[in-house]
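Researcher: Go.
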Amino acid sequence: MWIEGLANECRQPLALSGGTGQDDEQPRVGLHQDALATPRRDPLELLLRIGGALGIAAASISLLIFAVGCFGFNKVFTGLPLVPLCMAVPGIVLSIIGGIRKSPIDEDPHVMAALFCNLIGFVGALLEISIWLNWAVFYQQGQQVG
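Model: Structure:
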């Protein structure tokens, strides 16, 4: 009973003051066939989001490699740190380009967050590569350099 009343109410034309009458037959609920679900976008607007996603993935993988290495699996440092490095470098480039060509929706903190995530992934990967290749990054007492 109340469902029929709601259905009849939805079928009634809209009462617009001063309208031309062309949109009077539009239903109150739902969309008509010509309505787009999302507005069309420029593909370059996605660069910042893709760069940020690459940074988050690079930082997460780098953290996972470090955690597994801390559990005693030292072979994880052999070649695997190249994965977050290869994700963070394009992520930094895409974040910078996306920050230059950003839409009004993308604010400056979004650009800084994407760059920060990529920087964490990049630095983490470099530290893991230094473990893999035995680089002398930190000071070690009793060893001579050279």
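Model: The mean pLDDT is 79.
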